[in-house]
Fold this sequence. Notes:
Oligomer: single chain
Domain Galactokinase N-terminal: 10-57
EC number: 2.7.1.6
Shape: globular
CATH class of the largest domain: Alpha Beta
CATH architecture of the largest domain: 2-Layer Sandwich
Domain GHMP kinase N-terminal: 93-182
Helix content: 25-40%
Catalytic activity: alpha-D-galactose + ATP = alpha-D-galactose 1-phosphate + ADP + H(+)
Binding site for Mg(2+): 130, 162
Strand content: 15-25%
Amino acid sequence: MTDQTLEQIFEQQFGQPSTHRFFAPGRINLIGEHTDYNGGHVFPCALTLGTHAIARKRDDQVFRFYSLNFEADGIIEVSGDDLTHQPVHGWANYAKGMIHVLREAGYQIDEGCDILIKGDIPNGAGLSSSASLELVIGVLLDTLYELQLDRIELVKYGQQVENQYIGVNSGIMDQFAIGMGKAGSGLLLDCETLDYTYAPLDLSGYTIIIMNTNKRRELADSKYNERRSECEEALTYLQQYRPYATLGQWSTVEFEAVPFEDERLQRRARHAISENERTLQALDALTEGRLEAFGQLMNASHRSLQVDYAVTGQELDTLVEAAWSQSGVLGARMTGAGFGGCAIAIVEDETVEAFMTAVGRQYEAAIGYPASFYTATVGDGAREVEQEVI
């Protein structure tokens, strides 16, 4: 299979050649974790790792899906008049959900299509493989059915799939970063207003390392929704003191003046508020070329996620603390929702190999199985790409 193009595999599976090829990246969040659904800021970037989709329209109402990441599932075939969520369809629910949501919004998707998927994002790693799949299907449908979708509207539809169709109460950051990413840039996003700014990511002399705990985490089954409801509860309590609509509107100074009886809710809110301030400070630090200050903000972010938000766990803490102990490291923190998944570190170019060896050794000794390491390259958002010539 390694010598075959995706186009050749498509033709083998579906019996006809494909007509279009698309790509949507994964994402990492440099700083600003669990702030998106609290009306705060995030600072993600799109990666060159992501999800490829090869497609061809059909002349009937049938949709057929095949993934090289889940070959044992074979071709998943569904009728266009029944796009309801079916647990047995696994990964294909994200694709079905995108078709369903766009149709519900009034877009004409009258014929079916054949779609082959290959993702090179480590599954369950917290680099947002689900949002990448939603957005690659979104740009595919936009092109094949000439929907002329506004890109930010498409991003919102992707979040709707996650929230309403899949049932994960996540914010808009993942879909936004994947839909709007730009090579060589981070993206400061106000999750309340959707105002955004591209910020040049000039990390000359440094490499972003993604460190995968290899502990699977499934968002829908994690404490993610629990944290979100705790923040809503904290906000309701705080609104007795100030009529702010989100935690992101609070400052740390204002927050610290409020008496709390419930220490758990206090810690959850303190993370959301302080992390939002760190994210804005991080943009200033990067813009001004103060990389060391940016690294220190990353470290503080991890400590807040560990102590106040309680979403790191032994695996992520082991990786990050091992990273902090190495020379040539600007900063390190968990990225994504937590509960497993990945951490990131910004490391001097000449120490990358030594860093991965030392951190890998410490992690395996403490946890009992190895971590995986990837160097991250910042890429463009979801798009159509040239088909490979067969």
